[in-house]
UniProtKB/TrEMBL annotation, chain A:
This is 2-oxoisovalerate dehydrogenase subunit alpha. Its cofactor is thiamine diphosphate. It comes from the Eukaryota. Heterotetramer of 2 alpha/BCKDHA and 2 beta chains/BCKDHB that forms the branched-chain alpha-keto acid decarboxylase (E1) component of the BCKD complex. The branched-chain alpha-ketoacid dehydrogenase is a large complex composed of three major building blocks E1, E2 and E3. It is organized around E2, a 24-meric cubic core composed of DBT, to which are associated 6 to 12 copies of E1, and approximately 6 copies of the dehydrogenase E3, a DLD dimer. Interacts with PPM1K. It comes from Dissostichus eleginoides (Patagonian toothfish). PANTHER family: 2-OXOISOVALERATE DEHYDROGENASE SUBUNIT ALPHA, MITOCHONDRIAL.
UniProtKB/TrEMBL annotation, chain B:
InterPro entries: THDP-binding (IPR029061), Transketo_C/PFOR_II (IPR009014), Transketolase-like_Pyr-bd (IPR005475), Transketolase_C (IPR033248). PANTHER family: 2-OXOISOVALERATE DEHYDROGENASE SUBUNIT BETA, MITOCHONDRIAL, 2-OXOISOVALERATE DEHYDROGENASE SUBUNIT BETA-RELATED. GO terms for biological process: branched-chain amino acid catabolic process; response to nutrient. The keyword Mitochondrion applies. This is 2-oxoisovalerate dehydrogenase subunit beta, mitochondrial. It comes from Dissostichus eleginoides (Patagonian toothfish). Its cofactor is thiamine diphosphate. Together with BCKDHA forms the heterotetrameric E1 subunit of the mitochondrial branched-chain alpha-ketoacid dehydrogenase (BCKD) complex. The BCKD complex catalyzes the multi-step oxidative decarboxylation of alpha-ketoacids derived from the branched-chain amino-acids valine, leucine and isoleucine producing CO2 and acyl-CoA which is subsequently utilized to produce energy. The E1 subunit catalyzes the first step with the decarboxylation of the alpha-ketoacid forming an enzyme-product intermediate. Pfam families: Transket_pyr, Transketolase_C. GO terms for molecular function: branched-chain 2-oxo acid dehydrogenase activity. Its EC number is 1.2.4.4.
Length: 447, 391
């Protein structure tokens, strides 16, 4: 209780200011640019500080503010670890159909992860990253958005794309870099993108998407079409300068954006106590003037509720929201990582067995007799079958036309690139036996 | 970041005088004002030197409609004004652009087009460019200002790893083609390490972006409008020493000058001189000197677009003249002259009468007091021509 009170004292100004602002602006979505200004002229007869840089009172005893990391921002949840609803008023009361869809998307993702991880071990694809343990963060947040909202991700959000309807064939095509890949075979596996589903193509550099997401949100605000942006990143990426830039810009420029941090405990091998010393990522939000919340990322309803409300207000009030979803990365960082080198099997097992988003949701469903053992058995069989079929199809497809190595550098081909392309083909004509031509599509491309 | 230095530059350029502050009962500056006597000692020379070039305006263009006398920063304002008027998605942002910008390039635009379209950002170059990329991805025409090219480096990752590669890596699903980044560029007489840089070579090595540098107000407006219209992310470097010094009759209506087309400023038969930005005016003087003192006829080419650059025009000229001199303020090693030199010797080896000459800055940071010795001035270029002719 005392901890909560002191937390409120620290963040109280922001909370109260936000409430006042929220009610005042609820009626209209006008721009507040320039609204945050001094209300009174400078007046040195007052004992209140007159500095333009902060709105505060004087204090005459020396005391440093203690960062509260022992009892930090509390974790919002709807279900307990066994999937029981704690406070019925927080149950989003989604239909059976919606909940089953959540479950099936999370488990389909899990199945796809297992098969593609294995395929990398067998040398069939070059690289893969699993989403084990974080399926709840993907599905809960994706379900709370509108399909027209733009998603900027990091690389561990495949479930968001899956929820929106990205076909298994397209996931496979990108991982196999085959002729069906929308990305034309240019990037490593798991760097998905879809224009139709408003999922901006993933790039490897971390946190670069954060200020970009703020810019996109600003453009959407000007369009005034009731669209928001969500930006995903891990707690490690949140240390990058780009994260600071994105948060600050989104607050000062009043952008309709949700920043969604997946705090999964590790950035490759670096645990959170080597990543930051403050109270996680949520505690940084108030520093930027941003409304923030910490949620149980393994509770799909908590993620759903928080994202839904953040989205509603971000668009209505043109301000950013920060959601820190606490979760755990059950898998290795990627196929290039063996996490037994830096964490114990017991730790991983705890999360896999005792606090998993999929099993918690299953308990919720079985408690309502929405899902039986037979349903589980037949769904597992069916989902594995569809994934395997897509996998086998993808593996047989050719790779993209080699001409596609040279296109899309600019919107148009340049004389320089034309020359280099011609030089490449002249070389290939002479030395073709040293190059894997048989794997690549030879159909002419329309430019 | 160099806020103090920026204040100094701003003071020098915008003639803001600090008046009326000391009108209280006592001098409130914390120190008595010292009365300075004019320097009568013949040994102390005046600090301000003449510029190392004379701006040479181009003949007035009549094909783009009525013109108005504008300097370089006004021609930039004109281009931005045209853009905001015709493109409702266009937005201009960066540090201090709201009040008009430290070089006055955005004066009047916020009042005319609104606070949502011309606005300040926090002081963060990586944020400015990242934000610009995102706005462009979402369909807006984003015009980002970096206050000095010297400060563009925090945005290097966003430019090179993100903006340049957006279209390619997404298979053309996404792009930030409607992003243009503008930054003041080049020496200014007293700019020193961090207000004088010419970073085009760093970006020339990055496929996917375009790098453009104008020599004059007319070129600036036309090239900037081309960059804004171009569906690839562009960096537009504006020679800051020309902001006030370069005055021309500039068309009021919008017009474009094509990118990746070098401009033959002056035809000649004996030596090809290639440069861009301020250095073109140095080269024109050098061409006159070469004609008068050596009887040598020089062809002066303004490259204008550094990336992708117009190899054909330069090579065609070198085939004709057999001699090439390239000059830029940026340090010689790894400077863009090296790329031009390498490509030209590949294409035109047998046409060359002499080794290709590069007259550039030394491999030092850009110095303050030593600037007159550092820059590739007309005497250094003239001397290089003499050596080439006598090779």
């Amino acid at each position: 209780m005392a901890a909560v009170k002191s937390m409120n004292k620290l963040y109280g100004v922001c909370v109260h200011a936000a409430r006042r602002t929220a009610s005042r602006l609820f009626q209209h979505r006008a721009f507040r640019v320039g609204a945050v200004q001094r209300q009174q002229p400078f007046d040195s007869s007052l004992e209140k500080p007159q500095f333009p840089g902060a709105s505060a009172e004087f204090v005459d005893h020396l005391e440093f503010i203690q960062p509260n990391v022992i009892s930090g921002i509390p974790v919002y949840r709807v279900m307990d670890r066994q999937g029981n609803i704690i406070d019925p008023s927080q149950d989003p009361q989604l239909s059976k159909e919606q909940v089953l869809n959540f479950y099936q998307k999370m488990t389909l993702l899990n199945t796809m992860d297992r098969i593609l991880y294995e395929s990398q071990r067998q040398g069939r694809i070059s690289f893969y990253m699993t989403n084990y343990g974080e399926e709840g963060t993907h599905i809960g947040s994706a379900a709370a958005l509108d399909p027209e909202d733009i998603v900027f991700g990091q690389y561990r959000e495949a479930g968001v794309l899956m929820y929106r309807g990205f076909p298994l064939d397209m996931f496979m095509a990108q991982c196999y870099a085959n002729v069906d890949d929308l990305g034309k075979g240019r990037q490593m596996p798991v760097h998905y993108g879809s224009k139709d589903l408003n999922f901006v193509t993933i790039s490897s550099p971390l946190a670069t998407q954060i200020p970009q997401a703020a810019g996109a949100a600003y453009a959407l605000k000007r369009e005034n079409m009731n669209r928001a942006v969500i930006c995903y990143f891990g707690e490690g990426a949140a240390s990058e300068g780009d994260a600071h830039a994105g948060f600050n810009f989104s607050a000062t420029l009043e952008c309709p954006i949700i920043f969604f941090c997946r705090n999964n405990g590790y950035a490759i091998s670096t645990p959170t106590n080597e990543q930051y010393r403050g109270d996680g990522i949520a505690a940084r939000g108030p520093g930027y003037g941003m409304l923030s919340i910490r949620v149980d990322g393994n509770d799909v309803f908590a993620v759903y509720n928080a994202t839904k409300e953040a989205r509603r207000r971000a668009v209505a009030e043109n301000q950013p929201f920060l959601i820190e979803a606490m979760t755990y990365r059950i898998g290795h960082h990627s196929t290039s990582d063996d996490s037994s080198a830096y964490r114990s099997v017991d730790e991983v097992n705890y999360w896999d067995k005792q606090d998993h988003p999929i099993s918690r949701l299953r308990h919720y469903m079985t408690a309502r007799n929405w899902w039986s053992e037979d349903d589980e058995k037949s769904w597992r069989k069916q989902s594995r079958k569809t994934v395997m079929e897509a996998f086998e199809r993808a593996e047989k497809r050719l790779k993209p036309n080699i001409e596609l190595m040279f296109t899309d550098v600019y919107q148009e081909m340049t004389p320089n690139l034309n020359k280099q392309r011609d030089a490449m083909w002249r070389h290939m004509k002479q030395y073709k036996e040293h190059y894997p031509f048989e794997l690549f599509d030879k159909e002419p491309i329309s430019q | 970041m160099a806020a103090a230095a920026r204040f100094f530059i701003r003071g020098a350029n915008s003639k803001l005088s600090i008046t009326g502050i000391g009108n209280g009962s006592q001098s409130s500056f914390g120190g008595t004002l010292v009365k300075l006597s004019p320097s009568s000692n013949s040994r102390t020379k005046t600090q301000r030197r003449h510029a190392h070039f004379t701006f040479q305006p181009d003949p007035e263009r009549t094909q783009y409609g009525p013109t108005q006398k504008m300097n370089l920063f006004q021609s930039v304002t004109s281009a931005l004004d045209n853009t905001l008027a015709s493109d409702p998605t266009a937005v201009i942002f960066g540090e201090d652009v709201a009040f008009g910008g430290v070089f006055r390039c955005t004066v009047g635009l916020r009042d005319k087009y609104g606070k949502d379209r011309v606005f300040n950002t926090p002081l963060c170059e990586q944020g400015i460019v990242g934000f610009g990329i995102g706005a462009a991805v979402a369909g807006a025409t984003a015009i980002a200002e970096i206050q000095f090219a010297d400060y563009i480096y925090p945005a290097f990752d966003q430019i090179v790893n993100e903006a340049a590669k957006y279209r390619y890596r997404s298979g053309n699903l996404f792009d930030c083609g409607s992003l243009t980044i503008r930054a003041p560029w080049g020496c200014v007489g007293h700019g020193s390490l961090y207000h004088s840089q010419s970073p085009e070579a760093f970006f020339a090595h990055c496929p996917g972006i375009k790098v453009v540098i104008p020599r004059s107000p007319v070129q600036a407006k036309g090239l900037l409008l081309s960059c804004i219209a171009d569906q690839n992310p562009c960096i537009f470097f504006e020679p800051k020493i020309l902001y006030r010094a370069a005055v021309e009759q500039v068309p009021v209506e919008p017009y474009t000058i094509p990118l990746s087309q070098a401009d033959i400023v002056q035809e000649g038969s004996d030596v090809t001189l290639v440069a861009w930005g301020t250095q073109i005016h140095v080269m024109r003087e050098v061409a006159n000197m070469a004609q008068e003192k050596l009887g040598v006829s020089c062809e002066v080419i303004d490259l204008q677009t550094i990336l992708p650059w117009d190899v054909e025009t330069v090579c065609k000229s070198v085939v004709k003249t057999g001699r090439l001199l390239i000059s830029h303020e940026a340090p010689i090693t790894g400077g863009f002259a090296a790329e031009i030199s390498s490509s030209v010797q590949e294409e035109c080896f047998l046409n060359l009468e002499a080794p290709i000459s590069r007259v550039c800055g030394y491999d030092t940071p850009f110095p303050h007091i030593f600037e007159p010795f550092y820059i590739p001035d007309k005497w250094k270029c003239f001397d290089a021509i003499k050596k080439m002719i006598n090779y």
